[in-house]
Amino acid sequence: MARIGIFGAGWVGLVTGVCFAELGHDVVIRDIVPEKIEALGRGEVPFHERDVPELLERNRRRLSFTLDANDVVGCELLFVCVDTPPTYAGDADLSRVWSVIEELPPLPVRSILVMKSTVPVGTGAKVRAGLDARGLADVGYVSNPEFLSEGRAVEEFMHPDRVVVGAFEDADADPVAALYEPLATPIVRCDVNSAEMIKLAANAFLMTRISFINEIANVCEATGADVVKVAEGVGLDHRLGPHFLRAGIGYGGSCFPKDSLALKQLASNSGYHFQLLSAVIEVNELQKRRVIGKLKRHLGSLAGRKVALLGLAFKPNTDDMREAPSIVLASRLLAEGAEVRGWDPVVAGHPALGGVELVGSVVEAVQGADAAVIVTEWPDLRELAREEVRRAMATPLIVDGRNLLDPALTRAAGFAYEGIGRPMSPTDVLPETTEREFAPELNR
Ligand SMILES: NC(=O)c1ccc[n+]([C@@H]2O[C@H](COP(=O)([O-])OP(=O)(O)OC[C@H]3O[C@@H](n4cnc5c(N)ncnc54)[C@H](O)[C@@H]3O)[C@@H](O)[C@H]2O)c1
Question: What confidence tens digit (pLDDT) does each residue in 279-288 have?
Fold first, then answer.
């Protein structure tokens, strides 16, 4: 069993830590935020992620938490799991990574620095040079990008599709690959640059699929096709597969937006204009705003209208609000003069939601509302089209930004319904909406 040090107690660092502890290793996790370390010391997880509290509890004797970088002395493997947010230029900000290199204490046992943070191609070579410059030539370096997604992070860590291990020296890759052997998953061993690119390319491809199906949805709206059926028919083709073909109001979160920008900038800094990725990003930005057009088409001016935003986290089963589409929607609605109420089962508030009244239940959120918008597909919202909700609303209009509901059942329950890329029905015309406003060609 290895002794593992982890820098960063965020989603990736903590999940990595509790999972390696579950596999029997001794793990010390270092962060720089005292409240996080104190909470973890008490056995509390500072964010919402299923299975992490149970693994933390079960493996407490193998886990320790510290603010002191010196406490990683004695660890053979040092995982870097710090955040790499975008700079104003759109590049990845590697300042936290460099802090870790500067803070590494003298290491008496031979150690390997393992990069799990998502970094631009070429970072490993720079870190290698930085370690050498600090007199740490004996510290090995491995790129081991992380592919977990929030909401299913533990499950995906324990059952990954593959593990990527990029190294300058085979001898450094071996102990890292050995850590993952119990997971019985393919291990892609390669050079450091390729490992870094695999992560960026995988994310870019997933985003491309999302923007692709969203554009297909927009064409479906203009032509009367149903994107849900289209995605089903497309996804059953074994060459294409069903994943990430769900039309909606666009991706958000801590990874996709920043990683797409970082890859675009990386290409551009290297003299290449990544046209496809630029389009993927632009489509996503426009997609978030389409809900506003849909609301206006039903309600006319939004000034003074009451709109309920249902689901605020960037996706279900997390309380992560980084780049959540709800933030863009709320800000656009407030700018249009609407009154916005928000509900989410785990997000209690966020600085970017200033002006939004957060309430504790769906029924409170829709009370007197002219429209309810499903922003995040929390399972609780599957039951939205019910009598209690219809009675509470001033206008029974549901804009389903995630295609969560069954349109026929929702209409049968007395709601006007509009999804993303789904055919309209004459019953979706609210009493005050004219036929002209309802024309499909205006549905853009
Ligand atoms: N969140 C995801 O779903 C996900 C998935 C795959 C990859 N990633 C990548 O993994 C990295 C981490 O992401 P995250 O979501 O866990 O970030 P996060 O912001 O949740 O956590 C990062 C943590 O690092 C800590 N930190 C900063 N500087 C430090 C230092 N010098 N020493 C120790 N700790 C320090 C921060 O205080 C914070 O707690 C990013 O590069 C991200 O792109 C994230």
Answer: 999 999 999 9
